[in-house]
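Below is a filled-in request sheet from our internal design queue. Each sheet records the structural input a requester submitted and the sequence that came back. We keep these sheets so that new team members can see what a complete request looks like end to end.

REQUESTER: design group, bay 2
PRIORITY: normal
MODE: inverse folding
CHAIN LENGTH: 77
BACKBONE (tokenized):
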């Protein structure tokens, strides 16, 4: 008895999207701590310079936004 596996273009596209999704999640997990440290450093610099302007978003939201912007460039190549 012989079994053959047929891969269609739809299956290949689905596999490719799933791989890119996992790759994006890994890049996010690697990049988020770095961007969080950068955002916290920026907030500390604002505090030291004694500016009393309140940031528009939390430090976590700022780090998340910068990670998504950076990952966008990585996948745009």
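RETURNED SEQUENCE:
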């Amino acid at each position: 008895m012989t079994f053959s596996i047929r891969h269609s273009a739809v299956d290949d596209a689905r596999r490719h999207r799933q791989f890119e999704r996992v790759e994006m999640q890994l890049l996010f997990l690697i990049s988020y701590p770095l961007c969080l440290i950068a955002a916290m450093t920026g907030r500390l610099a604002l505090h030291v310079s004694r500016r009393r302007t309140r940031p528009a978003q939390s430090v976590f939201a700022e780090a998340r936004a910068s990670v998504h912007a950076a990952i966008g460039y990585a996948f745009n190549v």
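SHEET NOTES:
- The chain has a mean pLDDT of 84.
- Helices lie at 9-48, 59-76.
FILED BY: M.R.
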